[in-house]
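Notebook entry, structure prediction.
Reason for the run: the old model in the group folder had no record of what sequence produced it. Starting over properly, with the input documented here first.
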Amino acid sequence: MKAISVIDDQFGIPNHVDFISSSTLACMNKYYKYSTIEKNRSHGIYNLSCDGQTTWFDFAKYILDGVYDKFKIPCDLKAVKSNHFKSNVNRPKYSVLSNQKIIKQFDIKIPSWQYYADKYIESLDE
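New structure, fully documented this time:
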């Protein structure tokens, strides 16, 4: 079995479309209930991402471990550094953003990235 090479020195947060859409809708619903003054105070730029952080390698391992548990399909992962893949694009090693502003402003709950990874794995057909 040939190993899949996955970068292990870049940190970020995987986000599921269900999380982004439901959180955006929750914020919009709260915004529309605000007074004009509250609306004006809430304008700005917000970060929105699941809670936690991981490397691409650890994310791939998490998903593949879950897939293995469900389907018994083996996969060999190999952790590699970013420079293993030749690219003209310089990606940041750490791109984890803070959710504190959006949590404080809209009082939303932020689940872990693992919660949505588990939901994805559970949704796979056998």
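Summary: The CA atoms of residues 21 and 36 lie 24 Å apart.
The old model has been moved to the deprecated folder.
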